[in-house]
Amino acid sequence: MSEYSHWEIEKKWQGFWEEKGTFKVSNQSDKPKYYVLDMFPYPSGAGLHVGHPLGYIASDIYSRYKRLKGFNVLHPMGFDSFGLPAEQYAIQTGQHPAITTEQNISRYIEQLKNLGLSYDWSREVRTSDPGYYKWTQWIFGELFNSWYNNDTDQAEPIKTLIQKFSESGNKGINAPSDEDTPVFTAEEWNALSEEEQYKITLKYRLTYVADATVNWCPGLGSVLSNDEVKDGVSERGGFPVIQKLMRQWMMRITAYSQRLLDGLDTVDWTDSLKEQQRNWIGRSVGALVKFEIMEEGRKEEGERNPLSLSSVPPSSLSIEVFTTRVDTIYGVTFMVIAPEHELVDQITTAGQRRAIDEYIAMTQKKSERDRMSDVKTVSGAFTGAFAINPFNGEKVPVYIADYVLAGYGTGAVMAVPSGDQRDWNFAKHFDLPIIPILDAQKDVETQADATKEGKYINSGMINGLTFHEANKVLIQYLEEKGIGKGKINYRLRDAVFSRQRYWGEPVPVFYKEDSTGTPVPYLMSENELPLNLPDVDKYLPTESGEPPLGRAQDWQHGSGNAYELSTMPGWAGSSWYWYRYMDPQNQSEFASQEAIDYWQNVDLYMGGTEHATGHLLYSRFWNKFLKDRGYVPQEEPFKKLINQGMIQGRSNFVYRVKSEDYANPTFVSAGLRDQYEVSGLHVDVNIVQNDVLDIEKFKATRADIGAANAKYILEDGKYVCGVEIEKMSKSKFNVVNPDDIVEKYGADTLRLYEMFLGPLDQAKPWNTHGIDGTYRFIRKLWRLFYNDAGQSVVKDIPAKPEELKILHKTIKKIEEDIENFSFNTGVSAFMVCVNELGSLKCHSKPILQELVILISPYAPHIAEELWVALGNEAGTVSGAAFPKWEQQHVIDAIFEYPVQINGKVRISIPFPLDTPGEEIEKAVLANETVLKWMEGKPARKVIVVPKRIVNVVI
């Protein structure tokens, strides 16, 4: 081949790999295993832009490298294909989401294959395939049929719990359960009907139904995750989102809180990522304290009579608070409960009802994230109720405020304004007392002081004590009096597992009415799975407000029992998918035991930082559960995790002179815009070259801003655009399609350039202009093998010492860089190597053969072509051995010593590396140039620093 034709070469080898199954991997091998996994992509209709493949290319380089190092590498790809975008498109067009999803996946696969990624496509999985989500439903069923035994610290089959109930009741059961779980003896349990026993087990299962405060989006007719809500509206569509209490399926992830924390110490993840997980789980050591509610209108301090309500026993009407600073309890001057707290309605007085209702309505419009992040706004409403401080008998007013969340802790806080700034702000706003509690607190009338130093004042039984002394006394008192206890708390809440959508996994549950007519959930049997999505006439909620599945005709279980109408959330299918890749065609198990025992878990996981909490926590939770139940051998699913940085867009702008006549606008070049009053408008970066606008293409494509009729004020005959670095998105006209880059420059060039842009884990801007240099490098590499006439110039001759030195230094550098995921410096090393070999006119086959293997992970297509040109069998470069560097060729035999005379370098003299210092000193003092600069003066001192420098002092 005379000329490097990237299009011809790349199509040829992509076809070869697919036909020969080059990257198809077996679940059995004498080689050590290595599992490289990319985070499941969602196949959007827009396809890939150049920012998306960054992680895929990096993981592919590493996968190819590990094959060369002798590993059996599993590197699969599939699609997280359920989701809201496809459903929204279906609502707009009436087209079934499966159709658009299939089209989007086909587009993604085409683009991914064009990049030369070494995936084993025979293992592709899709979460929306019934053959896949059958096993997602099965795992749901296993969770439903399990409880968490705190004594053994693991999940166990529900039948073991039932056995304990029948033998000794539940008084000694140490397990997470619903708050309203009754206490019963073995006799009482055994006297219950089968139906009554079943309903009690529902309170212990790891997936259960409960009322939960959720992000409800009426415009989408669905619950949204926190990630899908921004500034109080849905990220998709911009519909208002409110906080609403709804009946939902839940996952008892909180049972695993401590194990999720402990597991972070065993994995190779970045410290920042681990810290995000720790913060999300939020372990706190503190105490639970009960504050009784005063009877409405009671003024006498110290009385303890709670409100008398028919539905609540008098002794139970209290607010329970979790606090990490029980030592501050004497400084409590008010209490705050979440607007969604279950007691709000009960304790609100008639006079405060309107204010409370208005405040709750306002709070419902904010997402939890907004409420947590808004630390400046002070707002709240008084319930009219008072609580009693159990330590000093003082009555404290009870407020609601949106900075307290129902799902964190107990949904209530005891407010100590002298020690907490947010409480201090609240107290000042509502003119509430601020009581100092430590003699070391300073100036609490101007701001809070959270110190733990000093000794307590105004604090009853702990006056004069230190922080650690006070905590022990107070917790002992709480437990003795039965009004509280020491406790470890977690910020992590049980996960909502329902979505009122169509395009998701059906929950394998049906409902039967009990003896009171109440629907009770029952699990479908395994042989009935999968429960397939039914057809519906529309993908909208029913007229009566049921989820879209309520539209399905005759969709019932058995003799008329209704199925669950909500579907699973998007994270369900992505919480176990790495196991399905191990054995994707298995019809009888989610993966065979042999496959799981061979691959174990993921050695390298690559993906974006947006999954730092949600996906990774849920995945770790499901993995730990599967291990508890004996299905998988490893506690943690992902040994090493790398988050690639974002490739940002390089936006271009045109500047329109402000005018009333935008039908005939004037656009001024960037360098002249300061002379006019202008507004900047995004322009398609694909019609801009080196920041110079193609005006004719602009006129043809931007009729919306009057480009065709515009006047253009140019600089030196050109229209120069402005530049800004932003997130890559269609709305900013800065999306670059990788297909265009591959067409013009080739996939190998794109792969090298994406790695060359900067460190893998850092954000960096895309600039198409810079890719020319990478393309020239590829052509230089080609010229080591072919001359301008297209003739091979490779010669089977021994390598020269200087060529071996260049090669082995490069081998050492590339190996170190790949192991450290420093792919950008690896590309630089290749460029230096090819330039140096080119300067030496190196055409030695022993050198070039090693170089081809070395570069094959980065640029596999050209490597395959050159490998065959060297006389090797087609396709075997992928299975070659990674070159080994030798010490003798890496260490320089000669070192050029700079020679300083009185502090100034006057000459460099080469010496063999093993030359003793005494000989170097003699040779330096005998050198003519050195003698010239010494001007006949004797050397007072000569300092030889090995492999560094020689200093002569005269």
Give the overall silhouette: globular
Distance between the termini: 64 Å
Number of strands: 35
Rg over alpha carbons: 35 Å
Helix content percent band: 25-40%
Q: Strand portion, in percent?
A: 15-25%
Mean pLDDT: 92
Q: Helix/strand/pairing class, anyone?
A: alpha+beta
What's the helix count? 29
Question: Which stretches are poorly predicted, pLDDT < 50 over at least 5 residues?
Answer: 297-315
Largest sheet: 7 strands, mixed
Describe this structure as you would to a colleague.
This protein has 29 helices and 35 strands. The chain is α+β, with helices and mostly antiparallel strands and 954 residues long. The strands form nine sheets. Strands 10, 11, 12, 13, 14, 15 and 16 form a seven-stranded mixed sheet that branches. Strands 24, 25, 26, 29, 30 and 31 form a six-stranded mixed sheet that branches. The protein is globular and about 105 Å long.
